[in-house]
Protein: Orotidine 5'-phosphate decarboxylase
Organism: Saccharopolyspora gloriosae
Amino acid sequence: MTVRAGFGRRLAESVAARGALCVGIDPHPALLNAWGLEESPAALERFAMTAVEALAGEFAVLKPQSAFFEVYGSAGVAVLEKVVAASREAGALVLLDVKRGDIGSTMTAYANAYLDEHSPLAADALTVSPYLGFGSLAPALGIAEQTGRGVFVLARTSNPEGAALQRSTADDGRTVGQSIVDAAGENNAGADPYGYVGVVAGATIKPGELDFSRLNGPILAPGLGAQGATVQSLRATFGAALPSVLPATARDVLRHGPSVADLRSAARRVRDELGVLLES
């Protein structure tokens, strides 16, 4: 396996050069239709590669949502492979949103599919689910660490259905979400500027709900825009952890297509607004 600089360092360098914004590539049927496209593999490719053309050369992280490609079968997965390769070639880090979580050899297979150097789907990082136990993620964590890639572990998601589980209290008094943040932090101990195990915490969660002080890793914060979070609300939500936050948006940028210039301008506006927030 090829060994790179740690993912935390690579992410920090990319954010410093390109700004703290993660843009999702979500070929949702409603967006395809809004672009005047049918629901087909050819239209999927046009949509996704237009987004890559607009964004990959200028923004730190792109986050393709795998499900919207998988729905087209092997043709859709082939488009996803092109998106991953073209985005990385243009200099963007690719965070593949797959939310995989399993045990043993199955988790190892998932990790090899998305993190191994020889896989056509190998991304810079992927999202994973810890709800078969944080320890079940060991294969993904091991391969990510070896190859200089990253994982983002679901801790406190923005969907209402997640609250009952993620805010429930364990025997030690911590919420389930907090226990996941703390477990991620254990893997990041001593890393500089931060480690390779990030967490997913929705930008719409309650301020102060999670303590990130021991995480020493990145925080993917989906929910900016269409789900109700704003750039201005991020400071109250994340407090002192704000410099480690990677805010994510998708629909609020993608709805400006199919114009490459309009897509790029929409993403620039959000990125610039984030820059002002972080400098204040």
